[in-house]
Amino acid sequence: MRKTIFQILIGINLFILLLFFFAPFGVWFLIITLPLLMIAIHDSRQKKHAILRNFPLIGRARWIIESVRPFVQQYILETDTGGAPISRMFRNIVYQRAKNSIDTIPFGTQIDTYQTGYEWIGHSLSALNVEDIDMDPRVIIGSRHCKQPYSASILNISAMSFGSLSKPALQALNKGAKLGGFYHNTGEGGVSPYHLEYGADVVWQIGTGYFGCRNDSGSFDPDKFKQQALHTNIKMIEIKLSQGAKPGHGGILPASKNTQEIADIRGVKVGTQVDSPATHSAFNSPVELITFIQTLRDLSGGKPIGIKLALGRRSEFVAICKAMVELNITPDFVTVDGGEGGTGAAPLEYSNSIGSPLREALAFVDDCLVGYGVREDIKIIASGKIISGFHLVKNLALGADICNSARGMMLALGCVQSLSCNTNECPTGVATQDPSLSSGLIPANKAVRVHQFHKKTVHATADIISSAGLSLPCDLNRTHIFRRVNQQEVKRYDEIFPHMVIGGFLQDCIPESYKIDIAEANANSFVPKKTLTSINQQMKSLCENA
Q1: Which alpha helices (H) appear in 372-488, and where do they start and end?
Q2: In Å, how far are 276, 416, 418 from 389, measured between CA atoms?
Q3: Which of 48, 236, 313, 446 qualifies as a cystine partner to 172, CB 3.0-4.6 A?
Q4: Predicted structure pTM score
Protein backbone atom coordinates (compact mmCIF):
# COMPACT_ATOMS: atom_id res chain seq x y z
CA MET A 1 0.00 0.00 0.00
CA ARG A 2 2.79 2.41 0.98
CA LYS A 3 4.65 1.62 -2.25
CA THR A 4 1.50 2.21 -4.26
CA ILE A 5 0.95 5.62 -2.63
CA PHE A 6 4.47 6.73 -3.52
CA GLN A 7 4.14 5.43 -7.06
CA ILE A 8 0.91 7.37 -7.56
CA LEU A 9 2.33 10.58 -6.09
CA ILE A 10 5.59 10.34 -8.06
CA GLY A 11 3.66 9.53 -11.25
CA ILE A 12 1.36 12.52 -10.74
CA ASN A 13 4.31 14.83 -10.13
CA LEU A 14 6.22 13.57 -13.21
CA PHE A 15 3.09 14.08 -15.30
CA ILE A 16 2.70 17.61 -13.93
CA LEU A 17 6.37 18.37 -14.60
CA LEU A 18 5.70 17.55 -18.24
CA LEU A 19 2.65 19.80 -18.15
CA PHE A 20 4.79 22.51 -16.60
CA PHE A 21 6.85 22.74 -19.78
CA PHE A 22 3.91 22.47 -22.19
CA ALA A 23 0.96 24.03 -20.33
CA PRO A 24 0.84 27.29 -18.29
CA PHE A 25 -1.46 25.81 -15.65
CA GLY A 26 0.93 22.94 -14.87
CA VAL A 27 2.77 25.00 -12.24
CA TRP A 28 -0.38 25.23 -10.09
CA PHE A 29 -0.82 21.49 -10.07
CA LEU A 30 2.83 21.14 -9.10
CA ILE A 31 2.37 23.55 -6.16
CA ILE A 32 -0.43 21.32 -4.84
CA THR A 33 0.99 17.84 -5.41
CA LEU A 34 4.68 18.38 -4.57
CA PRO A 35 3.93 19.23 -0.89
CA LEU A 36 1.74 16.11 -0.70
CA LEU A 37 4.70 14.04 -1.86
CA MET A 38 6.90 15.68 0.80
CA ILE A 39 4.31 14.93 3.51
CA ALA A 40 4.10 11.31 2.37
CA ILE A 41 7.90 10.96 2.57
CA HIS A 42 7.89 12.52 6.06
CA ASP A 43 5.09 10.20 7.22
CA SER A 44 6.89 7.11 5.97
CA ARG A 45 10.06 8.03 7.88
CA GLN A 46 8.57 9.15 11.23
CA LYS A 47 8.46 6.63 14.08
CA LYS A 48 5.66 7.94 16.32
CA HIS A 49 2.54 6.70 14.49
CA ALA A 50 2.42 3.21 12.94
CA ILE A 51 -0.60 4.06 10.78
CA LEU A 52 1.17 7.01 9.14
CA ARG A 53 4.33 4.97 8.64
CA ASN A 54 2.42 2.17 6.94
CA PHE A 55 -0.08 4.40 5.09
CA PRO A 56 1.62 7.77 4.52
CA LEU A 57 -0.62 10.74 3.77
CA ILE A 58 -3.79 8.63 3.58
CA GLY A 59 -3.44 7.72 7.26
CA ARG A 60 -4.02 11.37 8.14
CA ALA A 61 -7.65 11.00 7.10
CA ARG A 62 -8.20 9.17 10.40
CA TRP A 63 -7.42 12.29 12.43
CA ILE A 64 -9.47 14.52 10.15
CA ILE A 65 -12.53 12.27 10.44
CA GLU A 66 -12.04 11.93 14.18
CA SER A 67 -11.91 15.71 14.64
CA VAL A 68 -15.22 16.31 12.82
CA ARG A 69 -16.95 13.21 14.26
CA PRO A 70 -18.67 15.02 17.20
CA PHE A 71 -20.11 17.65 14.87
CA VAL A 72 -21.31 15.12 12.27
CA GLN A 73 -22.82 13.07 15.07
CA GLN A 74 -24.60 16.01 16.69
CA TYR A 75 -25.84 17.88 13.63
CA ILE A 76 -26.52 15.06 11.16
CA LEU A 77 -26.91 11.69 12.89
CA GLU A 78 -28.34 12.56 16.32
CA THR A 79 -32.08 12.08 16.93
CA ASP A 80 -34.21 14.41 19.07
CA THR A 81 -34.25 11.90 21.92
CA GLY A 82 -30.58 11.00 21.47
CA GLY A 83 -27.39 12.82 22.36
CA ALA A 84 -25.50 12.82 25.62
CA PRO A 85 -25.16 14.06 28.25
CA ILE A 86 -28.13 16.31 27.33
CA SER A 87 -30.41 15.08 24.54
CA ARG A 88 -31.31 17.33 21.63
CA MET A 89 -34.93 17.40 22.83
CA PHE A 90 -33.91 19.06 26.11
CA ARG A 91 -31.29 21.29 24.49
CA ASN A 92 -33.97 22.55 22.14
CA ILE A 93 -36.41 23.37 24.94
CA VAL A 94 -33.73 25.47 26.65
CA TYR A 95 -32.92 27.33 23.43
CA GLN A 96 -36.59 27.94 22.68
CA ARG A 97 -37.39 29.26 26.14
CA ALA A 98 -34.22 31.34 26.30
CA LYS A 99 -35.10 32.97 22.98
CA ASN A 100 -38.78 33.32 23.97
CA SER A 101 -39.84 31.36 20.89
CA ILE A 102 -42.47 28.62 20.50
CA ASP A 103 -41.73 25.82 22.99
CA THR A 104 -44.58 23.45 22.13
CA ILE A 105 -44.19 20.22 20.14
CA PRO A 106 -46.45 18.71 17.44
CA PHE A 107 -47.98 15.25 16.99
CA GLY A 108 -47.29 13.78 20.43
CA THR A 109 -44.26 12.56 22.33
CA GLN A 110 -41.23 10.93 20.72
CA ILE A 111 -40.44 9.13 23.96
CA ASP A 112 -41.30 5.44 24.23
CA THR A 113 -43.75 5.54 27.14
CA TYR A 114 -43.52 1.76 27.55
CA GLN A 115 -39.77 1.65 28.13
CA THR A 116 -38.51 0.75 31.58
CA GLY A 117 -37.74 3.90 33.54
CA TYR A 118 -40.36 6.12 31.92
CA GLU A 119 -41.79 8.53 34.51
CA TRP A 120 -44.83 10.81 34.71
CA ILE A 121 -46.94 12.80 37.16
CA GLY A 122 -50.54 11.88 37.85
CA HIS A 123 -52.79 14.79 36.92
CA SER A 124 -56.00 15.57 38.80
CA LEU A 125 -59.64 15.98 37.81
CA SER A 126 -59.62 18.87 40.28
CA ALA A 127 -56.79 20.67 38.49
CA LEU A 128 -56.34 24.36 39.30
CA ASN A 129 -56.40 27.24 36.86
CA VAL A 130 -52.92 28.60 36.20
CA GLU A 131 -54.03 32.16 36.94
CA ASP A 132 -55.05 31.08 40.45
CA ILE A 133 -51.57 29.97 41.54
CA ASP A 134 -48.26 31.71 42.23
CA MET A 135 -46.13 31.56 39.09
CA ASP A 136 -42.98 32.57 40.98
CA PRO A 137 -43.03 30.48 44.17
CA ARG A 138 -40.37 31.20 46.81
CA VAL A 139 -38.87 29.11 49.60
CA ILE A 140 -37.50 30.54 52.86
CA ILE A 141 -34.08 29.13 53.76
CA GLY A 142 -32.97 29.62 57.36
CA SER A 143 -33.20 27.45 60.47
CA ARG A 144 -33.78 28.54 64.06
CA HIS A 145 -30.04 29.31 64.25
CA CYS A 146 -30.19 31.74 61.33
CA LYS A 147 -30.58 35.50 61.77
CA GLN A 148 -30.82 36.45 58.07
CA PRO A 149 -33.11 33.91 56.34
CA TYR A 150 -33.22 34.06 52.54
CA SER A 151 -36.19 33.80 50.18
CA ALA A 152 -35.07 31.67 47.21
CA SER A 153 -36.57 30.89 43.82
CA ILE A 154 -37.29 27.21 43.15
CA LEU A 155 -34.75 27.31 40.26
CA ASN A 156 -31.30 28.88 40.53
CA ILE A 157 -27.84 28.92 38.95
CA SER A 158 -25.73 26.04 40.19
CA ALA A 159 -22.06 26.30 41.17
CA MET A 160 -19.76 27.41 38.33
CA SER A 161 -16.49 29.20 39.07
CA PHE A 162 -14.68 32.03 37.35
CA GLY A 163 -12.08 29.89 35.68
CA SER A 164 -14.37 27.17 34.53
CA LEU A 165 -16.56 29.85 32.91
CA SER A 166 -15.47 33.01 31.15
CA LYS A 167 -15.91 36.58 32.37
CA PRO A 168 -18.72 37.40 29.87
CA ALA A 169 -20.52 34.16 30.78
CA LEU A 170 -20.50 35.04 34.48
CA GLN A 171 -21.61 38.59 33.74
CA ALA A 172 -24.53 37.29 31.69
CA LEU A 173 -25.52 34.79 34.40
CA ASN A 174 -25.31 37.42 37.12
CA LYS A 175 -27.35 39.95 35.18
CA GLY A 176 -29.90 37.26 34.24
CA ALA A 177 -30.20 36.28 37.91
CA LYS A 178 -30.75 39.90 38.87
CA LEU A 179 -33.46 40.30 36.22
CA GLY A 180 -35.23 37.12 37.34
CA GLY A 181 -34.74 37.37 41.10
CA PHE A 182 -32.90 34.08 41.58
CA TYR A 183 -29.49 33.32 43.03
CA HIS A 184 -26.11 32.76 41.43
CA ASN A 185 -23.76 30.21 43.04
CA THR A 186 -20.08 31.19 42.73
CA GLY A 187 -18.62 27.70 42.56
CA GLU A 188 -15.56 26.90 44.64
CA GLY A 189 -13.28 29.33 42.77
CA GLY A 190 -14.17 32.22 45.05
CA VAL A 191 -16.19 35.41 44.67
CA SER A 192 -15.06 37.23 41.54
CA PRO A 193 -16.05 40.81 40.60
CA TYR A 194 -18.28 39.29 37.91
CA HIS A 195 -20.36 37.39 40.47
CA LEU A 196 -21.18 40.77 42.04
CA GLU A 197 -21.23 43.11 39.05
CA TYR A 198 -25.00 43.36 38.52
CA GLY A 199 -26.12 42.94 42.11
CA ALA A 200 -27.75 39.51 41.89
CA ASP A 201 -28.18 37.39 45.00
CA VAL A 202 -25.08 35.24 45.44
CA VAL A 203 -24.36 31.95 47.19
CA TRP A 204 -20.68 31.80 48.07
CA GLN A 205 -19.36 28.27 47.79
CA ILE A 206 -16.31 27.36 49.85
CA GLY A 207 -14.41 24.28 48.76
CA THR A 208 -11.36 22.47 50.08
CA GLY A 209 -9.06 25.11 48.56
CA TYR A 210 -10.75 27.91 50.59
CA PHE A 211 -10.40 30.31 47.65
CA GLY A 212 -11.17 33.83 48.81
CA CYS A 213 -10.73 32.93 52.48
CA ARG A 214 -7.37 31.15 52.61
CA ASN A 215 -4.04 32.02 54.15
CA ASP A 216 -0.64 31.56 52.51
CA SER A 217 -0.53 27.88 53.45
CA GLY A 218 -3.95 27.22 51.87
CA SER A 219 -5.81 26.82 55.16
CA PHE A 220 -9.05 28.55 56.19
CA ASP A 221 -8.65 32.19 57.26
CA PRO A 222 -11.60 33.36 59.45
CA ASP A 223 -10.77 37.05 59.08
CA LYS A 224 -10.77 36.92 55.27
CA PHE A 225 -13.97 34.88 55.37
CA LYS A 226 -15.74 37.40 57.60
CA GLN A 227 -14.68 40.33 55.42
CA GLN A 228 -16.11 38.68 52.29
CA ALA A 229 -19.16 37.03 53.88
CA LEU A 230 -20.58 40.33 55.14
CA HIS A 231 -20.98 41.58 51.55
CA THR A 232 -24.59 42.63 50.96
CA ASN A 233 -25.06 40.50 47.83
CA ILE A 234 -23.87 37.29 49.47
CA LYS A 235 -27.06 35.76 50.84
CA MET A 236 -25.89 32.24 51.75
CA ILE A 237 -22.65 30.27 52.19
CA GLU A 238 -22.25 26.70 50.94
CA ILE A 239 -19.48 24.36 52.19
CA LYS A 240 -18.62 22.01 49.33
CA LEU A 241 -17.78 18.56 50.67
CA SER A 242 -17.88 16.90 47.25
CA GLN A 243 -19.42 17.40 43.81
CA GLY A 244 -21.11 15.22 41.24
CA ALA A 245 -18.51 15.73 38.52
CA LYS A 246 -15.65 14.26 40.55
CA PRO A 247 -16.73 13.22 44.05
CA GLY A 248 -13.85 12.57 46.41
CA HIS A 249 -11.39 14.20 44.00
CA GLY A 250 -11.43 17.96 44.54
CA GLY A 251 -11.89 20.62 41.86
CA ILE A 252 -9.58 20.96 38.86
CA LEU A 253 -8.62 24.23 37.16
CA PRO A 254 -6.54 23.46 34.04
CA ALA A 255 -3.35 25.51 33.68
CA SER A 256 -4.60 26.92 30.35
CA LYS A 257 -7.51 28.59 32.18
CA ASN A 258 -5.47 29.89 35.15
CA THR A 259 -4.91 33.50 34.09
CA GLN A 260 -3.31 36.20 36.23
CA GLU A 261 -6.73 37.56 37.20
CA ILE A 262 -8.02 34.15 38.28
CA ALA A 263 -4.81 33.42 40.19
CA ASP A 264 -5.18 36.71 42.07
CA ILE A 265 -8.81 35.96 43.00
CA ARG A 266 -7.96 32.46 44.19
CA GLY A 267 -4.61 33.27 45.75
CA VAL A 268 -2.65 30.73 43.70
CA LYS A 269 0.28 30.73 41.24
CA VAL A 270 -0.62 31.84 37.71
CA GLY A 271 -0.39 29.40 34.78
CA THR A 272 -0.45 26.26 36.89
CA GLN A 273 -3.09 23.53 37.15
CA VAL A 274 -4.92 24.05 40.44
CA ASP A 275 -6.06 20.81 42.06
CA SER A 276 -8.12 21.40 45.19
CA PRO A 277 -7.46 18.92 48.02
CA ALA A 278 -9.82 15.95 48.25
CA THR A 279 -10.81 16.80 51.84
CA HIS A 280 -11.15 19.84 54.10
CA SER A 281 -8.44 20.85 56.55
CA ALA A 282 -10.78 22.98 58.72
CA PHE A 283 -12.53 19.90 60.15
CA ASN A 284 -11.88 16.16 60.40
CA SER A 285 -15.12 14.69 61.72
CA PRO A 286 -18.91 15.17 61.49
CA VAL A 287 -18.95 16.92 64.89
CA GLU A 288 -16.19 19.28 63.76
CA LEU A 289 -18.10 19.94 60.51
CA ILE A 290 -21.25 20.95 62.39
CA THR A 291 -19.16 23.14 64.71
CA PHE A 292 -17.54 24.74 61.64
CA ILE A 293 -21.01 25.47 60.23
CA GLN A 294 -21.91 27.38 63.38
CA THR A 295 -18.58 29.23 63.24
CA LEU A 296 -19.32 30.41 59.69
CA ARG A 297 -22.84 31.38 60.72
CA ASP A 298 -21.48 33.56 63.53
CA LEU A 299 -18.76 35.12 61.34
CA SER A 300 -21.26 35.93 58.57
CA GLY A 301 -23.70 37.70 60.86
CA GLY A 302 -26.21 34.85 60.93
CA LYS A 303 -26.57 34.13 57.21
CA PRO A 304 -27.78 30.68 56.08
CA ILE A 305 -24.95 28.14 56.00
CA GLY A 306 -25.24 24.82 54.19
CA ILE A 307 -23.29 21.88 52.84
CA LYS A 308 -23.07 20.42 49.36
CA LEU A 309 -22.24 16.80 48.70
CA ALA A 310 -22.49 14.04 46.16
CA LEU A 311 -23.61 11.05 48.21
CA GLY A 312 -20.88 8.45 48.56
CA ARG A 313 -20.70 6.06 51.51
CA ARG A 314 -24.13 6.41 53.04
CA SER A 315 -23.00 5.99 56.65
CA GLU A 316 -21.01 9.23 56.36
CA PHE A 317 -24.13 11.31 55.84
CA VAL A 318 -25.84 9.43 58.66
CA ALA A 319 -22.84 10.35 60.83
CA ILE A 320 -23.39 14.03 59.95
CA CYS A 321 -27.05 13.68 61.01
CA LYS A 322 -25.96 12.08 64.29
CA ALA A 323 -23.62 15.04 64.89
CA MET A 324 -26.53 17.46 64.28
CA VAL A 325 -28.61 15.69 66.93
CA GLU A 326 -25.70 15.43 69.37
CA LEU A 327 -24.83 19.16 69.15
CA ASN A 328 -28.39 20.36 68.56
CA ILE A 329 -27.07 22.43 65.63
CA THR A 330 -28.14 22.04 62.01
CA PRO A 331 -27.10 23.53 58.69
CA ASP A 332 -29.72 25.69 57.02
CA PHE A 333 -29.63 23.69 53.80
CA VAL A 334 -28.11 20.61 52.20
CA THR A 335 -27.35 20.63 48.47
CA VAL A 336 -27.47 17.13 46.98
CA ASP A 337 -25.39 16.86 43.81
CA GLY A 338 -26.05 13.89 41.55
CA GLY A 339 -23.19 11.67 40.42
CA GLU A 340 -24.24 12.29 36.79
CA GLY A 341 -21.27 14.63 36.35
CA GLY A 342 -21.07 18.38 35.94
CA THR A 343 -19.93 21.16 33.66
CA GLY A 344 -16.17 21.03 33.98
CA ALA A 345 -13.07 18.88 33.70
CA ALA A 346 -13.18 15.47 35.37
CA PRO A 347 -11.52 12.07 34.89
CA LEU A 348 -13.72 9.63 32.95
CA GLU A 349 -14.01 7.17 35.83
CA TYR A 350 -15.22 9.88 38.22
CA SER A 351 -17.92 11.15 35.87
CA ASN A 352 -19.07 7.65 34.94
CA SER A 353 -18.71 5.49 38.00
CA ILE A 354 -18.35 7.40 41.28
CA GLY A 355 -21.11 8.94 43.36
CA SER A 356 -24.78 8.14 43.76
CA PRO A 357 -27.20 9.32 41.03
CA LEU A 358 -29.35 12.25 42.08
CA ARG A 359 -32.71 10.56 42.69
CA GLU A 360 -31.36 7.83 44.97
CA ALA A 361 -29.14 10.32 46.80
CA LEU A 362 -31.94 12.85 47.21
CA ALA A 363 -34.34 10.27 48.65
CA PHE A 364 -31.69 8.99 51.07
CA VAL A 365 -30.76 12.47 52.34
CA ASP A 366 -34.42 13.42 52.81
CA ASP A 367 -35.10 10.12 54.61
CA CYS A 368 -32.17 10.59 57.00
CA LEU A 369 -33.12 14.16 57.89
CA VAL A 370 -36.72 13.06 58.50
CA GLY A 371 -35.61 9.98 60.42
CA TYR A 372 -33.45 12.04 62.75
CA GLY A 373 -36.16 14.67 63.22
CA VAL A 374 -34.17 17.60 61.79
CA ARG A 375 -35.83 17.94 58.36
CA GLU A 376 -38.03 20.88 59.44
CA ASP A 377 -34.96 23.04 60.05
CA ILE A 378 -33.15 22.10 56.85
CA LYS A 379 -34.02 22.85 53.22
CA ILE A 380 -32.81 20.46 50.51
CA ILE A 381 -31.45 21.73 47.19
CA ALA A 382 -31.22 19.27 44.27
CA SER A 383 -28.60 19.60 41.54
CA GLY A 384 -27.94 17.31 38.57
CA LYS A 385 -29.10 17.53 34.91
CA ILE A 386 -32.16 19.64 35.77
CA ILE A 387 -33.37 21.16 32.52
CA SER A 388 -37.17 21.12 32.24
CA GLY A 389 -40.15 21.82 34.46
CA PHE A 390 -40.77 18.10 34.92
CA HIS A 391 -37.18 17.64 36.09
CA LEU A 392 -37.95 20.16 38.84
CA VAL A 393 -41.26 18.48 39.68
CA LYS A 394 -39.67 15.02 40.04
CA ASN A 395 -37.00 16.28 42.40
CA LEU A 396 -39.40 18.41 44.41
CA ALA A 397 -41.72 15.43 44.82
CA LEU A 398 -38.84 13.22 45.93
CA GLY A 399 -37.72 15.55 48.71
CA ALA A 400 -36.09 18.71 47.35
CA ASP A 401 -37.33 22.18 48.28
CA ILE A 402 -35.58 23.97 45.41
CA CYS A 403 -33.33 23.05 42.48
CA ASN A 404 -30.09 24.29 40.92
CA SER A 405 -29.15 24.02 37.25
CA ALA A 406 -25.69 24.42 35.73
CA ARG A 407 -25.87 22.85 32.28
CA GLY A 408 -29.35 24.29 31.67
CA MET A 409 -28.03 27.78 32.35
CA MET A 410 -25.00 27.15 30.13
CA LEU A 411 -27.30 26.12 27.28
CA ALA A 412 -29.31 29.31 27.84
CA LEU A 413 -26.03 31.21 27.39
CA GLY A 414 -25.61 29.57 23.98
CA CYS A 415 -23.61 26.41 24.82
CA VAL A 416 -23.90 23.92 21.94
CA GLN A 417 -22.60 20.90 23.88
CA SER A 418 -19.35 20.79 21.90
CA LEU A 419 -17.83 18.83 24.82
CA SER A 420 -14.76 21.06 24.94
CA CYS A 421 -15.21 22.50 28.46
CA ASN A 422 -11.89 21.01 29.57
CA THR A 423 -9.81 22.26 26.61
CA ASN A 424 -10.20 26.06 26.85
CA GLU A 425 -11.53 25.93 23.27
CA CYS A 426 -15.27 26.38 23.88
CA PRO A 427 -16.59 27.73 20.54
CA THR A 428 -19.40 29.73 22.16
CA GLY A 429 -17.14 31.54 24.67
CA VAL A 430 -18.90 30.05 27.70
CA ALA A 431 -16.29 27.70 29.18
CA THR A 432 -13.02 29.31 28.11
CA GLN A 433 -10.52 31.94 29.19
CA ASP A 434 -9.39 32.59 25.61
CA PRO A 435 -10.32 36.26 24.87
CA SER A 436 -10.64 35.55 21.16
CA LEU A 437 -13.47 33.10 21.95
CA SER A 438 -15.11 34.67 25.01
CA SER A 439 -15.40 38.04 23.24
CA GLY A 440 -18.07 36.51 21.03
CA LEU A 441 -20.43 36.18 24.01
CA ILE A 442 -22.32 39.45 24.59
CA PRO A 443 -23.48 39.57 28.26
CA ALA A 444 -26.36 42.00 27.72
CA ASN A 445 -27.95 39.72 25.12
CA LYS A 446 -27.33 36.43 26.91
CA ALA A 447 -28.55 37.78 30.28
CA VAL A 448 -32.02 38.22 28.82
CA ARG A 449 -31.93 34.62 27.58
CA VAL A 450 -30.92 33.32 31.00
CA HIS A 451 -33.77 35.28 32.56
CA GLN A 452 -36.30 34.02 30.01
CA PHE A 453 -35.19 30.39 30.38
CA HIS A 454 -35.59 30.65 34.14
CA LYS A 455 -38.95 32.39 33.97
CA LYS A 456 -40.53 30.02 31.46
CA THR A 457 -39.17 26.90 33.19
CA VAL A 458 -40.52 28.02 36.56
CA HIS A 459 -43.86 28.80 34.88
CA ALA A 460 -43.86 25.32 33.32
CA THR A 461 -43.19 23.83 36.75
CA ALA A 462 -46.06 25.78 38.34
CA ASP A 463 -48.31 24.75 35.44
CA ILE A 464 -47.54 21.04 35.99
CA ILE A 465 -48.17 21.41 39.73
CA SER A 466 -51.54 23.04 39.06
CA SER A 467 -52.45 20.14 36.73
CA ALA A 468 -51.97 17.81 39.70
CA GLY A 469 -54.51 19.86 41.68
CA LEU A 470 -51.81 21.48 43.83
CA SER A 471 -51.11 25.15 44.45
CA LEU A 472 -47.53 25.12 45.81
CA PRO A 473 -44.33 23.13 45.12
CA CYS A 474 -44.23 22.09 48.79
CA ASP A 475 -47.54 20.24 48.24
CA LEU A 476 -45.76 17.74 46.00
CA ASN A 477 -44.77 14.39 47.50
CA ARG A 478 -43.73 10.93 46.40
CA THR A 479 -47.31 9.80 45.76
CA HIS A 480 -47.57 12.08 42.72
CA ILE A 481 -44.87 10.56 40.49
CA PHE A 482 -45.08 7.19 38.70
CA ARG A 483 -42.31 5.09 37.17
CA ARG A 484 -42.49 2.07 34.88
CA VAL A 485 -40.14 -0.37 36.65
CA ASN A 486 -40.55 -3.10 34.04
CA GLN A 487 -42.86 -4.00 31.14
CA GLN A 488 -45.56 -5.36 33.44
CA GLU A 489 -45.36 -3.07 36.46
CA VAL A 490 -45.73 0.61 37.38
CA LYS A 491 -44.90 1.95 40.83
CA ARG A 492 -45.35 5.27 42.58
CA TYR A 493 -42.29 6.98 44.04
CA ASP A 494 -43.53 6.27 47.58
CA GLU A 495 -43.49 2.54 46.77
CA ILE A 496 -39.92 2.77 45.44
CA PHE A 497 -38.77 5.23 48.10
CA PRO A 498 -41.08 4.71 51.12
CA HIS A 499 -41.66 7.68 53.43
CA MET A 500 -39.84 7.70 56.76
CA VAL A 501 -41.42 8.21 60.19
CA ILE A 502 -40.47 11.63 61.59
CA GLY A 503 -37.83 11.02 64.25
CA GLY A 504 -38.10 7.27 63.63
CA PHE A 505 -34.33 6.71 63.59
CA LEU A 506 -34.19 8.04 67.16
CA GLN A 507 -36.91 5.62 68.27
CA ASP A 508 -35.47 2.46 66.74
CA CYS A 509 -38.08 2.63 63.97
CA ILE A 510 -35.48 1.92 61.29
CA PRO A 511 -36.12 0.23 57.92
CA GLU A 512 -33.94 -2.80 57.25
CA SER A 513 -32.13 -1.10 54.34
CA TYR A 514 -30.89 1.68 56.66
CA LYS A 515 -29.76 -0.41 59.64
CA ILE A 516 -26.22 -1.14 58.47
CA ASP A 517 -25.59 2.53 57.59
CA ILE A 518 -26.81 3.68 60.98
CA ALA A 519 -24.77 1.00 62.74
CA GLU A 520 -21.62 2.11 60.89
CA ALA A 521 -22.15 5.86 61.42
CA ASN A 522 -19.97 7.64 63.96
CA ALA A 523 -20.52 11.30 64.83
CA ASN A 524 -16.86 11.63 65.83
CA SER A 525 -15.38 10.22 62.62
CA PHE A 526 -16.20 9.97 58.93
CA VAL A 527 -14.63 6.49 58.97
CA PRO A 528 -17.36 3.85 59.49
CA LYS A 529 -17.32 1.92 62.76
CA LYS A 530 -17.23 -1.37 60.86
CA THR A 531 -14.63 -1.48 58.12
CA LEU A 532 -14.69 -3.95 55.26
CA THR A 533 -11.84 -5.81 56.93
CA SER A 534 -13.77 -6.36 60.16
CA ILE A 535 -16.84 -7.50 58.19
CA ASN A 536 -14.70 -10.02 56.29
CA GLN A 537 -13.26 -11.25 59.57
CA GLN A 538 -16.78 -11.72 60.96
CA MET A 539 -17.84 -13.63 57.85
CA LYS A 540 -14.75 -15.83 58.09
CA SER A 541 -15.50 -16.52 61.76
CA LEU A 542 -19.10 -17.46 60.94
CA CYS A 543 -17.95 -19.84 58.21
CA GLU A 544 -15.42 -21.49 60.56
CA ASN A 545 -18.06 -21.92 63.29
CA ALA A 546 -20.48 -23.41 60.79
Answers
A1: 389-398, 407-413, 435-438, 443-467
A2: 34, 21, 24
A3: 446
A4: 0.88
